[in-house]
Structures are given as C-alpha cells and as structure tokens.
Amino acid sequence: MAVEDQKTNADKFTWRIENFSKLKATKLCSETFLAGGRKWSISIYPKGNGTIYLPVYLHSIELETMPDGKNVDADFTLTLVNQINAASSLRKCGKKKPFPLGGRGWGFPSFVMLSKLLNPDEGFIVNDTVTIEVRVSMEQFTDQPDSASRETMNPEQRSAADDHPSDMVLNSAAKGPATPLSIQVASPANLAETTESSHSSRSVRLTSRSLGAEISRLNSNMKSSGTDSTSILLQQQREAMIGFLTMSLEAIYHADSFGDVEEVALQLADHPTAAVDKTHLKGLLTELKKGVSGSMSVIETSHAVEASLMQMSEGMEARLVHRQKQLSCLEGEVMRLGQEEKKLEAEMWEIIARKARVSDQKKLTSDELESTSQEASRELEEVKEQSNKRKRASENRLIAQENLAQLNASWKVLKDTLGL
C-alpha cells in the first residue's frame, strides 16, 4: 500500500496517500517533517474510528533540544485538497494551540464525511489518491502544565477553557496503538456536507451505499454502548434518514437502497420519542417499494418498446418513400404510354400491328401499377398500425409517470410524518 510523503518548504507539508480505499489499517501516520525547527506528524483514521467521518490530527514530536516543561504554541491549517477544483478544498484551522511534548496533538475527529471523501465526483479522491496538506506557524515557548493538570484536563474541558472549535479535540500520540475517540455528534457544517453529498445526481448509487455501509458499521459498533452513545447513534441515524429523504424514489430504486431506508426508518420508529406507528410505517415503506418498482418497470419497458417501434417505423417509412418513388415513375410511364396510344390511334389504319403491341405493353404496365399500389397500401397500413402501437406505449408511459408522481407525493407525506 503506497503512501507518498512530500515536503515543499519549512512550514508546509504535503501528504499523498495512494490506494486509499484499500487501506486496512485503523490508524495511519505520515512520516515526520520539520516546521519551525520542530518535528511534526499527521495522523488519520481511514475507516472513521467508529464514526462516519474522517478524523485528522497534527502531532508535535518531542526533540531533545526542547526545554523541559515547555509547550509550543502554534497556528496550523489542515487542508483536504480538492484535486478537481482547488477552490473547493476543505480547510480547518487551529489558532494558538499549545502542543505538548510526547507526540500528542490537536485535530478534528469529524474533518469530512467518509461518503463525501470516497465519492470521486467530489474531487477529494482521484485515482484512489487522497492529498492532505498542513501549514504550521510557530509561536513562543510556554510553560507546560504539570502532569496532574494534564491528566485531569480532558478534550472537552480543554476545548471549553481555550475556546476551541466544537469539533477540535486533543489527540493521543502519533506513534503506538490508536486510541479510540468518542463519537462526535455532527456539527451544522458537517450536516450541510451530508445534505450536499446526497444531492449529487452523479453519485447517487455511491452515496446511498456509503450511507448504508456506515449505518451497518455504526449499529455493530454501538450495540454494547451506553446511553450517550445510543443518543449519538440516534442523531446519526436521523442524519442518514435526512440524506435518504433528499433523494428521489427513482434514485433510491436505481441504487437498490430500499432495504437501507427501511432499516433506518424502522430503527427511528423504535425510539420512544418517535411519533409514528411502526406497523403503519412498515406498510407504507412496503407499498412505496412495490409501487416504485412497478412504475419503474413499466417505464423502462415502455421506453424499450418505444425505441423498438421507432426503429421499425423508421425502416417502414424509408421503404414507403421508395415505393412512392416507384409509383411516381410508373404513373409517368403510364401517362407517356397513353399519349403514345392516342397518337397511334390516329394512325391506326396505317400501323394496326404496332398499336396492338403497344396496347399489350400498356396492359402489362397497368397490371404492375395495380400490384405495386396494392403492396404500397398494405405497407401503409402496417405503418399506421406501428404508429398506433407506439402511441399506446407512450400512453402507458404517461400513466406510469403519473403513478410515480403520486408515489412521490406519498413519499413527501412520509417525510412530513417522520418530522424530518
């Protein structure tokens, strides 16, 4: 599994992670790099560390030349590079953060939703490569809190005391076994990321399957957790349901995600605060699934029939044009022979034998004209029949689309019923 580290200058470090989707490690650390004469390292949790987000942290690595009992104050910016549109890169900053010795560091447990990160259309992963940049600006040395105060100051207390962003926490050392983090409830910014990702029409299948996979993993990880974790899981289930509700029924059908929708909806209905009857909800979901499947089947079949009939009609119309040209030629020939017949009649006494031959030729040509006219009439009837079939197929498609519109209305009622 290739992970490429590149240094660009003393204060900026670029970490390119190849084959990101194939990473097996729970925690991944970059190589150390220098900024301001001090060693640093970045760590991430590629699988989310029990959440649906990618955690990213910056760590300060201890140097022998550092004074004892000192911290380093630093401003830093972590950037998830958008490789399609640099202006859409995701940046998060830390201001005047005290970095203690021993490798602990600051970062963001919910830097970006995994479903958004793993969606190639978003631009954060290209050729299965993710790029993370960090800029570090050094401040002055400060006295380091004694060991007792460090042990009693947890991430939440440190955030409140220093006015840190709600999604920034102090993380453990970059080296050694990964320490599981508490699951963070999504902030409004992250909730907006969820909604934005769900609206991407080019990534419906990937978004839906990512939501389903994250929900299944969360359910597995949280089965033995306490009340706080259950509350957080409920919030994440609500966010997942909101993500599904922003998708159309057609998109959910094409993504084959009705099972995921039903799983999340029924889990929400099991909660004591739910205002919907689970039996009624299950029946409604079953009705929606059956109705959408039927309507989409009719629409797809109608489209196929229309395309087939259109192709057949084009062939028949081409043959009809050819027949019309033949008729025009034969009619002109008959007219010419008729005029010649009149001329011969005026000279009939002189050229009776010639008139007889011309008359015979006229008869043969007339017979051919009649035969061709009959064939053209039959083909014209076939064209009309094909046109009628195509019209009926179009009517069936319109009826199916109306049924689908009614089902989408029921879907909105479900959304209003859930209160989401």
TrEMBL record:
Q: Where is this region: Disordered?
A: 141-174, 362-396
Composition-biased stretches (Basic and acidic residues): 376-388
CDD domains associated with the record: MATH
Presence of keyword Coiled coil: yes
Boundaries of each MATH domain copy?
A: 10-136
Keyword tags: Coiled coil
**PROSITE patterns on file:** MATH
**InterPro entries in the record, alphabetically?**
MATH/TRAF_dom, MCC, TRAF-like
Compositional bias (Polar residues) at which positions?
141-157
Q: Quote the Pfam families the UniProt record gives.
A: MATH_2
Protein name as catalogued:
MATH domain-containing protein
Q: Which organism is it from?
A: Linum trigynum
